[in-house]
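Intended use. Records like the one below are meant for learning the mapping from a protein sequence to its folded structure. Do not use them to infer anything beyond what is encoded.
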Amino acid sequence: MRTLLLFIAAALAEIAGCYLPYLWLKQGRSAWLLIPGTLSLALFAWLLTLHETAAGRVYAAYGGVYICVALGWLWAADQVRPTTWDLVGGGVALLGMGIIMFQPVR
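Structure written out for the chain above:
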């Protein structure tokens, strides 16, 4: 459960860290958004260091959770409801994350 919660927190930090500069660049919002965006990306990087397994494995597995959180962001921030295909793809990505992160320990 800790692994999944860390991944979700990291995904939210990464998405926010990328979304805030997007608002500045594409929607003409204030450049001051770059400050919380930068802090959010630093938080994202730090959260990924809290996992106890090899960094490459963490990065590979994180992608599955990121996909699902991004689909939630699509719905919440962009007001675009994910399709059945989006949800099935997210489920497959989560399955991949589980296989990578919860493999038997030798």
